[in-house]
Here is the input.
Amino acid sequence: MSPLGILQNALSLGPRSLPSLEAAVRAYTLDAAYTLRQEQDTGSLEPGKQADLVVLDRDIFKLPVNQIGKTKVLWTLLGGEEVYRSEDF
Here is the structure.
């Protein structure tokens, strides 16, 4: 399942939706790390934490909710190491 599709769905549940994209991103990152007791190592970009991140082809914070799942990942780092690079990057 696509994390971007999951974010879109989290905002499309009617009364059960998360209140904002910011809340959905936090739930998928820092809150998930906290639940797994890994918030000291991951979940946010801070000195000393693992560099897990993606570069997207567009700014999801400027999209209508129904377009978030169509966003493409261009580059992925896991623990600071490149694990994916799109031909478009």
